[in-house]
């Protein structure tokens, strides 16, 4: 590969890197939200189980 050919793919690689960085950031935000939902559901389930145990 010549130097010109090497340089020709640099913008494409940069675009790919930018795209993957954005995708990764999106996935991390989604994971944060899902983690909050999981924590809330676990807390509610724990409360329901405690309430049921107290009612028995």
Protein model, in words:
By secondary structure, the chain is mainly alpha-helical. It has helices at residues 3-8, 10-55. The model has no long low-confidence stretch (mean pLDDT 89). It has 2 helices and no strands.
Major sheet details: none
The number of helices is 2
Shape: rod-shaped
Proportion in β-strands: under 5%
SSE succession: HH
Average pLDDT level: 89
The oligomeric state is: single chain
Class by SSE composition: mainly alpha
Radius of gyration: 24 Å
Q: Which consecutive residue ranges, at least 5 long each, have pLDDT under 50?
A: none
How far apart, in Å, are the first and last alpha carbons?
Answer: 77 Å
Helix content: over 70%
The total count of strands amounts to 0
Record the SSE blueprint.
Layout: H1 3-8, H2 10-55
Which properties best describe this structure?
single chain, 56 residues, mainly alpha, 0% strand
Give a brief outline of the structure:
93% of the residues lie in helices and 0% in strands. It has 56 residues and is mainly α.
């Amino acid at each position: 590969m010549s130097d010109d050919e090497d340089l020709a793919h640099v913008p494409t690689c940069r675009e790919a890197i930018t795209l993957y960085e954005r995708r990764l950031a999106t996935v991390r935000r989604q994971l944060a939200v899902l983690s909050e939902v999981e924590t809330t559901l676990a807390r509610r389930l724990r409360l329901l189980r405690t309430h049921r145990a107290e009612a028995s």
